[in-house]
Amino acid sequence: MSGLLSVFFHLLLLFKLVAPVTFRHHRYDDLVRTLYKVHNECPYITRVYSIGRSVKGRHLYVLEFSDYPGIHEPLEPEVKYVGNMHGNEVLGRELLLQLAEFLCEEFRNGNQRIVRLVEGTRVHIMPSMNPDGYEVAAAQGADISGYLVGRNNANGVDLNRNFPDLNTYVYYNEKHGGPNHHLPLPDNWKSQVEPETEAVIHWIRSFNFVLSANLHGGAVVANYPYDKSLEHRVRGVRRTANTPTPDDKLFQKLAKVYSYAHGWMHQGWNCGDYFPDGITNGASWYSLSKGMQDFNYLHTNCFEITLELSCDKFPRQEELQREWLGNREALIQFLEQVHQGIKGMVLDENYNNLAEAVISVSGINHDVTSGDHGDYFRLLLPGTYTVTATAPGFDPETVTVTVGPGEPKLVNFHLKRSIPQATPTRRVPNPGHGRRVLPKKVQPRAREEDEETKRPQRVPA
Ligand SMILES: [Zn+2]
């Protein structure tokens, strides 16, 4: 008997020592417990926060990884993953929980790659954007889950068709001139979106996210913007057409980084579909209006792609380990992509940070802006670029910069206050015959002085 017991305890010990991360589906309570478990295991590099609640009052939790959780460090980019936006597409939710456990464990083990990532990047992981839909799908179970059961939120709304449509504005502006970045929200936007969408919009406006992926299921492909085609509907029929952004080459590269680091996505043939290199422009696959990825690109500095990760939207528990092994490297490599192109500070002559300065790259009709701390991030492929920083009340500054394939190049801007335009003054007859008179300094008029005081407030360092 005691021999049997000892064998039992040995087995228990062995199991505990080599206990793999458990691969199972996590219901809401289990998900919350798992996030806090990771936080308790890695308290100094993580933070759990909620961005708001679903229709049924469930929290939309985010787990943040950073060497200073809760703090934006200038020049350290913010990146995010959003899973389970469609409640019945559950693989992303489970992969993000695995990723959270993996980042924590590997950081603790001193894995240099993960240590570098956590110390140089602020990573925000939201395993579920639609916890209500998930519960409906999970109640049905993996085997009998219908194709659409649990897709929408508790009000029956598809959250990936619920963001303000900014494409219509940008397509108009591309033709007739107008801004190509940070398009404003419509006045009545809050009345048109669901609580989950509203929470996400507040979230992505309050962090200066640079890169993001939104995890779905039902196909295996990395999908990049635009999702909405230029002619979304013609006579009631949806028009499919490749609709590239001004950053098309960069988006293709971001998508390929994921598909080629993924176990099989890059092979192209998956779930009965074929996508060359395992990537696709969203609108050339099917046109979709009011999606989240286009909104990120058109309203904020964030470049988001949509990852379709499994043919089966609700894979069986036994599939989860294989899926994790197929996605692990891709999930890490994609986060590392935030470190490319150029970044730097935009400062005035007195070294004050300039927030919301506009960074334009000649030849790419899409600008980014500096964040509250005066730092900016511009993802770029290797090449030589002419980059201009502008801010109201300051002279623009232009530099030429060569970007390599490795770490981002540091390019700081020191903007000088513009000298107010000389106002033409009435000519006064020169009193000093034969004497040279130095021109009087032209005083700015009162109106210009008023404008001076209206200039945007600078944010102190
Ligand atoms: Zn989906």
UniProtKB/TrEMBL annotation:
Gene3D superfamilies listed in its UniProt record: Carboxypeptidase-like, regulatory domain, Zn peptidases
Lineage of the organism: Eukaryota, Metazoa, Chordata, Craniata, Vertebrata
Compartment list: Secreted, Extracellular space
Region (Disordered): 419-461
Name used for this protein in its record: Carboxypeptidase N catalytic chain
Signal peptide extent: 1-20
Catalytic activity: Release of a C-terminal basic amino acid, preferentially lysine
Keyword match Membrane: no
